[in-house]
Amino acid sequence: MSQMRLVIVGAGGRMGRTLIRAVAEAPDLALAGAIEPQGSALLGQDAGALAGLPPLGVTVTDDALPLFAAAEGVIDFTVPAASLGFAALAAQARIAHVIGTTGFTPEDEAKVEAAARHATIVKSGNMSLGVNLLAALVKRVAATLDDSFDIEIVEMHHNRKIDAPSGTALLLGEAAARGRGVEIGTQGVFARHGVTGARKAGDIGFAALRGGTVVGEHNVIFAGPAERIELAHKAEDRMIFARGALAAARWARGRKPGLYSMADVLGLHDI
Q1: How far apart (Å, rounded) are the C-alpha atoms in residues 205 and 139?
Q2: pLDDT tens for each residue of 71-91
Q3: Active site members
């Protein structure tokens, strides 16, 4: 099979540069384009040089549509507003769109679902194999234990992260809620301050820490009577997310349009 041609959007960001390096290292993939927003100081640069590699002959541009039309997939770790625009273009081009962006509103999610009628979209709050396996385990543990075990999710990220809780924390919270047969929208507790009263049985709590250069740490705590179970994941390098995103793109190649998750990619639904 020929190399899969991929476009990286948000090419100048930390994840964008990591993705460019990951694509360059993969013999079955080819960098078909690198996108930055209008007005970016990085426009016109070689994508390889931008990522600390020898020149790749791919110039950073702000004109996505012709690149999408000539590619088989796009990988997107940007911001919700940009991702929605890229989803519409991916639907127009009928290609795969791997979305690692977090912070979507319910209205945004509806627009992504609409784009998935024509694009093959793989969307996840975290693209790493370890985190998605952790989510499957969280679902299983939550289904096994009753609500005498309180569920708390603690996450920490670098001081430049703009959304909280993290997309990964929400992914884990949703897994716990599915295990319990409840909705995270009704059982999730996202802030505590002042006299909050006693914790309600069945709540799923979140705490977000920010500081330094932490790539990502997540702990899911099941605190029961006189015992506690903790499941944890610590990310040490952004390349784990890039490798997962490339695996998602490979999986999506040639697959029918629809909205998929990393659980689909990794076959974790039955765990």
Answers
A1: 15
A2: 999 999 999 999 999 999 999
A3: 157, 161
